[in-house]
Amino acid sequence: MNDQTIDVDQLTPGARQVLDAASRLFYEHGIHAVGVDGIAEESGVTKRTLYNNFASKDALVTAYLQHRHSSWWPRLQERIDDAAAPRALALFDVYAEDALHVTRGCAFLNAAAELPTDHPAFAVIRHHKASIEELLARLVREDSPEEPTPDQLGRHLFLLLEGAFAHQGVRGRQLITEAREIARSLLQ
Amino acid sequence: MNDQTIDVDQLTPGARQVLDAASRLFYEHGIHAVGVDGIAEESGVTKRTLYNNFASKDALVTAYLQHRHSSWWPRLQERIDDAAAPRALALFDVYAEDALHVTRGCAFLNAAAELPTDHPAFAVIRHHKASIEELLARLVREDSPEEPTPDQLGRHLFLLLEGAFAHQGVRGRQLITEAREIARSLLQ
DNA sequence: AACCCCCTATACCGATCTGTGAAGTTCCGC
DNA sequence: GCGGAACTTCACAGATCGGTATAGGGGGTT
After folding, report:
1. Cα–Cα 20 to 30 A to A36, which of A9, A28, A62, A178?
2. Do B171 and A116 touch (CB under 8 A)?
3. Mean pLDDT across the stretch A73-96?
4. Are A11 and A60 in contact (CB under 8 A)?
5. How much is the pLDDT for A5?
6. B123: closest chain A residue by CA
7. Does domain B57-186 have CATH number 1.10.357.10?
8. Which residue is closest to B156 within chain A, CA to CA?
């Protein structure tokens, strides 16, 4: 399924440093505001090493989002597995915890705001958001089988979650806890 | 209140062309992806004229968002005035109509994703979003006085609206109509 | 030993970035 | 017809952009 995911453990040390530095800088300052010179300097590696490991800046941007998704997703799954019904609230909990260091909102929506829709990374963005929406829909179907319209409830929770997350960089992190409270009341 | 708004009618013709072209390009391609050379070329004026009317690219970015808010807000108010209760749904209607040409989601959230938080335009972004949230809260208080927690319902609608709008560039425009349907059911 | 891979350093490419300088033109109100 | 605002063209500055070139060092495998 995820044939494109980045296996961090098999990256060369230099490549790992490049990806880490690029992730920090892209998220903090935006993609177009960060140059490859800055990434190389921040990662303690020369541009030659950067281009030995990543074909282009665009490829590095794609790897940034792929890695962000593929390292976060198992952590979310773990929290879902440990949660009691309604497990959908576990997503809000994870987002609320992340909010302490994820101070500029959703990295995927931020990237979508900057990239052309035919950029290779755009497929990663769509995959990430579709995964979350499908996960919420499944959790609602399984945990609230008496619900007459589980699909609509799933989308309802998705909009609450993403609305709060999208505004995190503008409004701050209390919005996500308010969204969780609203979601909790919806799930009885 | 709005001492910083741009009065389009008293801009010089060249300045107006610059602002229009910059607005198109900033929204379509992002702020950092667009250079002043491209804005000058697209607007049919020279860079000299651009800098005679705007102190810097940052000032032009700020004017772009100020104008976008100050030209859209009266149109929204008009629709609110003409709407029947619950008037909050009129916001969803306006967003749904805008979606036909506003294909890359919210210009203010997109800008917030690219700009540093101390950029002058960031205050415009916060003002815009606070205005919408306050408007929704007021409409709910006035139209649904029987509601036990009108503030929470207002925030609930805000999150639905903004969640759908934020995803418009990724998921397309049917999400906003689904959000409207959910909002309608919440308002009975 | 030879080889290969990954790394280093430094210099360079053409293009583009924001912003400025100087000088000349068009148009409008007085 | 004059002044001035707004415009034009052209050139340029200094920096930075993404990306490449050359040359060599360090360590592990065979």
Report:
1. A9
2. no
3. 96
4. no
5. 61
6. A170
7. yes
8. A182
